[in-house]
Amino acid sequence: MKNIKNATCIKENNTGAVIVAHPDDETIWAGGVLLMHPEASWHIITVCRASDTDRAPKFERILDEYHAVVGAMGDIDDGPDQIPLGITDIEETILNLLPDTYYDRILTHSPAGEYTRHRRHEETAKAVLSLLKSNRLRTSELWMFAYQDNNRQDFPKPIITADVRIELPQTVWKKKYEMITKIYGFSADSWEALTTPKTEAFWIFMSTEGVEKQIHERSNIQ
Predict the structure, then answer these.
(1) Would the pTM of this model clear 0.90, i.e. be above it?
(2) Alpha-carbon dihedral sign for residues 185, 189, 190, 193
(3) CB 140 within 8 A of CB 105
(4) Architecture of domain 10-219 in CATH?
(5) What are the sequence ranges of the domains in the chain?
(6) Which residue among 7, 80, 96, 134 has its CA within the 20 to 30 Å range from the CA of 170?
(7) Distance separating alpha carbons of residues 222 and 218, to the nearest angstrom
(8) pLDDT at 123 over 90
């Protein structure tokens, strides 16, 4: 693995794909990075909620805030029962939403998720890993969200052993928080607003080999 410090250097015209399960995940888990790097070419997709008449138009407004070059939504099942989905279905959704197959970096969920528990987060991460392993999707840097909630005892918080922890400037965090509360419309006492982290954390990989094992082992070293 190359130097992690070098891996965090986002340059002008770098391409980035942000692949998340739901509209709001891009902002809660990585909104600070997106806001601090408008010079990058961001392609932001969500695999769920395209037919959600409340959330979909809000996602469109969020894309403008990030100056996203591409934004698109899929509509895979996201019902309350969280019936397990075939990874192939999610893979095809991702490939259909992204206009390119190579990105300088890809930001997405962890296969362990960010809290206990949302199956679509975990499935999205596993679909991205599968696409990378098969070379149907390629990247120089894979950034996976690094948060956990101590088995529901806490709001999700950055994992201490994550490769990168980014303390957001107050102005950036405030903007991110306003996007969650004023654009997405979550109340100040909602889980989403109370979760919105002031520090963003990521696992960074240059290879897909052993990713899930590494995340599992290092998430438990606190």
Answers:
(1) yes
(2) positive
(3) yes
(4) 3-Layer(aba) Sandwich (3.40)
(5) 10-219
(6) 7
(7) 8
(8) yes
Return the residue matching tokens 């809290």.
115
CB 37 within 8 A of CB 10: yes
- Give residue 7's pLDDT: 55
* 130: its two tokens: 């599968």
Q: Which of 214, 6, 213, 212 is nearest to 104 (CA)?
A: 6
Structure-block tokens of residue 129: 């890993």
In the chain, % of residues over pLDDT 70:
95
Q: What is the pLDDT of residues 154-210, one digit of tens each?
A: 999 999 999 999 999 999 999 999 999 999 999 999 999 999 999 999 999 999 989
Angstrom distances, CA of residue 180 to CA of 10, 21, 58, 64, 203: 24, 16, 10, 14, 24
For residues 62 and 184, what is the distance between their CA atoms, to the nearest angstrom? 8
Q: Measure Cα distances from 104 to 21, 43, 125, 137, 138 in Å.
A: 21, 11, 18, 11, 8
Average pLDDT over residues 92-117: 97
